[in-house]
């Protein structure tokens, strides 16, 4: 009788421990999921704002042009627009794609989706990171040329003339870089969650 009581109390203790572990795993899972939702919202907002900031970027200045040394310089209106440079077009498009993907992945997360979707989300998060970093690299390369010019090929710097345009480009690149880091963290979190599922 006593052994039966001890056995049943021992089994009851194991059951309580299992329930406590399950509760801990559930709360960790909820925390990770809420963290992932916040990161996806942050990535969505940052890539959207970066695309909008550069997408509406335009500045017109009066630039003096000398036609002949004997004549006074002629002031000509010159406009700088983001779509004049293919690197900036790529930057805006890559941020728009990342923003659209963030919306889609957020909807899939909230609605629950299928279980096999987790590995696909990791792959797409990584692809979006690569896309954003390549867009940022292209925009930074053109931005450096705009700020410093290139004396070897006689490209003059233009940011001394179009200062507001260049400042907005720099702001958009910084926003997009932070959005890229949010997607990096999302890929890491998704990979960790997938690894924990497979080890259970």
What are the main properties of this structure?
200 residues; 2 strands; 74% helix; 4 helices
Describe the structure.
It is a single chain. The protein has 200 residues and is mostly helical. The protein is built from four helices and two strands, in the order αββααα. The protein has helices at residues 2-55, 86-111, 117-148, 163-199; strands spanning 58-65, 74-81. The longest helix has 54 residues, at 2-55. Mean pLDDT is 83; it is low at 5-10.
Q: Which stretches are poorly predicted, pLDDT < 50 over at least 5 residues?
A: 5-10
- The number of helices is 4
Order of helices and strands: HEEHHH
Mind telling me the C-alpha Rg? 27 Å
**Global structural class:** mainly alpha
Beta-strand fraction estimate: 5-15%
Rounded mean pLDDT is 83
**Estimated helix fraction:** over 70%
The major beta sheet can be summarized as: 2 strands, antiparallel
How far is the N terminus from the C terminus?
37 Å
Choose one word for the global shape.
elongated
């Amino acid at each position: 009788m006593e052994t039966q009581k001890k056995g049943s109390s021992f089994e009851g203790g194991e059951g309580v421990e299992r329930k406590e572990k399950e509760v801990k795993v559930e709360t960790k899972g909820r925390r990770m999921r809420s963290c992932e939702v916040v990161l996806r919202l942050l990535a969505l907002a940052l890539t959207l704002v970066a695309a909008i900031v550069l997408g509406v970027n335009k500045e017109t200045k009066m630039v003096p042009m000398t036609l002949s040394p004997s004549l006074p310089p002629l002031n000509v209106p010159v406009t700088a627009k983001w779509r004049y440079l293919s690197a900036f077009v790529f930057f805006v498009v890559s941020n728009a794609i990342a923003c659209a993907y963030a919306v889609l992945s957020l909807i899939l997360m909230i609605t629950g989706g299928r279980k096999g979707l987790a590995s696909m989300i990791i792959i797409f998060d990584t692809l979006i990171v690569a896309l954003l970093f390549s867009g940022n690299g292209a925009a930074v390369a053109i931005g450096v040329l705009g700020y410093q010019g290139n004396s070897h090929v006689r490209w003059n710097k233009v940011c001394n003339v179009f200062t507001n345009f260049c400042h907005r480009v720099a702001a958009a690149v910084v926003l997009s870089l932070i959005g890229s880091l949010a997607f990096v963290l999302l890929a890491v979190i998704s990979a960790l969650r997938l690894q924990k599922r497979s080890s259970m």
